[in-house]
Automatic annotation (TrEMBL):
InterPro entries: Dihydroneopterin_aldolase, FolB_dom, GTP-CH-I_C/QueF. Gene3D superfamilies: 3.30.1130.10. This is 7,8-dihydroneopterin aldolase. Its EC number is 4.1.2.25. It comes from Lysobacter concretionis Ko07 = DSM 16239. The lineage of its organism: Bacteria, Pseudomonadati, Pseudomonadota, Gammaproteobacteria, Lysobacterales. GO terms for molecular function: dihydroneopterin aldolase activity; isomerase activity. Belongs to the DHNA family. CDD domains: DHNA_DHNTPE. Residues 4-114 form the Dihydroneopterin aldolase/epimerase domain. One of its GO terms (biological process) is folic acid biosynthetic process. Keywords: Folate biosynthesis, Isomerase, Lyase.
């Protein structure tokens, strides 16, 4: 299956379980792969036939900027659900990195894969 991807999308957010984390915003980085049949926009050369990575990116930035979860797991799950439900994507692979959260590590975080068929109601 073809993919449309968004790599290294950085968004500042309120995220974390510790008191000091509830008083600041921290950078988060999203790497996202979305299954999509790119033969259709390739044939028409029309942006309306694409899975528009700019539209998806803007939606993620808007959502993450106003979010305030404790765990990266929760945020990753919500962003994956938005991609599946609002953009008609059948399968998404999402990596959410929290750079600098652990001394000595470049980044920590989670990787998830979700399908529209198995999305929890
Ligand atoms: N699996 C997770 N482990 C940890 C998380 C998390 O969201 N998921 N969060 C923290 C703290 O908020 C940490 O990022 C602060 O440095 C610790 N472990």
């Amino acid at each position: 299956m073809d993919k449309v991807f968004i790599e290294g999308l950085q968004v500042d957010a309120l995220i974390g379980i510790y008191d000091w984390e509830r008083r600041i915003r921290q950078p988060l980085v999203f790497d996202i792969e979305m299954a999509f049949d790119n033969r259709i926009p390739a044939a028409s050369d029309a942006i309306g036939d694409t899975l528009n990575y700019k539209a998806v990116s803007k939606r993620i930035i808007a959502y993450v900027s106003q979010s305030g979860f404790g765990l990266v797991e929760t945020l990753a799950e919500r962003v994956a659900a938005i991609i599946l439900e609002e953009f008609g994507v059948r399968h998404v692979r999402l990596k959410l990195s929290k750079p600098g959260a652990v001394r000595g590590a470049r980044a920590v975080g989670v990787m998830i894969e979700r399908s529209a068929a198995t999305l929890q109601q």
